[in-house]
Amino acid sequence: MSAAGDGSGRMVEIRGLSKSFGDLEVLSGIDVTVEAGEVVCVIGPSGSGKSTLLRCVNMLEVPTAGSVHVSGVELTHRDVDIDAARRMIGMVFQQFNLFGHLSVMDNVTIAQRRVLRRTKGEAERIGRENLAKVGVAEKESSYPPQLSGGQQQRVAIARALSMNPEVMLFDEPTSALDPELVGDVLGAMRQLAEEGMTMLVVTHEMQFAREVADRVLFMDEGMLVEQGPPSQVIADPRHERTRTFLARVL
Ligand code: ADP
Ligand code: MG
Fold first, then answer.
1. What residues does the ABC transporter domain cover (predicted)?
2. How far lies 235's CA from each of 42, 165, 202, 223, 242, in Å?
3. pLDDT at residue 5 in the model
């Protein structure tokens, strides 16, 4: 487990984060802290701003107001080296975004070589380690279209891990998968959590959130409505909006 760079134990610190698209405010004054080694799951209805929140953490969306620190580095600072800052952050999307014309091994080594300037041998060693960790070691010579969705998503996780991120962001990583393939991906994520990876996970998998999350955040209409341990937010929510949402998904 890596400690946050500023020594506070805070890996991700989001303060007063707002984001508008034109007149539409999709995030309103969000405050979230993720401690080093913590797993935080974000739940909430479609359109509540979950993806935008995650995208603001690595500046795929530029916040309208507020600040984001990752490992002590302010990504919202105008002088930040954004490419260097983003290297601390791994992101896994609903759509795996693998290169279909590249082998699995090339998919997991290309950024290591281009961005981190690792040699082919070093990148392959690290890639192989991470492919093994998520259970797809035997697929290194295959091409993404030859793999199941669950295998492709695990390759995407291995690719992100191979960059040695300090924190991993997951945006509904199992939502595009056939139900029978969801378990393998959640299993890989659970193992990662047990190894101490700091994780911010948008998910509709309540069982995963209940069992793996240290904390659950419920978002609605761009606001953080409530947060707490899963035993509270999922099992005994305080807010009516959380109850209404859970009644629909559980
Ligand atoms: P969630 O992930 O919770 O479903 P999103 O963060 O994707 O929600 O979206 C929140 C709101 O922001 C939605 O109303 C969505 O239509 C809007 N939105 C997201 N991205 C954009 C964009 N690039 N331009 C305009 N509106 C957007
Ligand atoms: Mg989303």
1. 12-246
2. 15, 32, 18, 20, 10
3. 57
Q: Are strands 198-202 and 167-171 parallel, antiparallel or unpaired?
A: parallel
The pTM score is 0.96
Rounded Cα–Cα distance for residues 139 and 95 (Å): 19
- Ligand 1 neighbour 144 (Cβ under 6 A): no
Phi, psi of 59 (to 5 degrees): 65, 25
**Which ligand places an atom closest to the C-alpha of 52?**
1
Spacing, Cα 29 to ligand 1 middle (Å): 16
Instruction: Verify whether ligand 1 is closer than 6 Å to residue 52 (CB atom).
Output: yes
pLDDT value at 240 more than 60: yes
Task: Give 43's Cβ-side CA count (13 Å radius).
Answer: 29
What phi and psi, each to the nearest 5 degrees, are found at residue 132?
-65, -40
CB of 179 closer than 8 Å to CB of 207: no
Residue pair 92/153 in contact by the 8 Å Cβ criterion: yes
Predicted complex ipTM: 0.98
CB 196 near ligand 1, within 6 Å:
no
72-99 average pLDDT score = 96
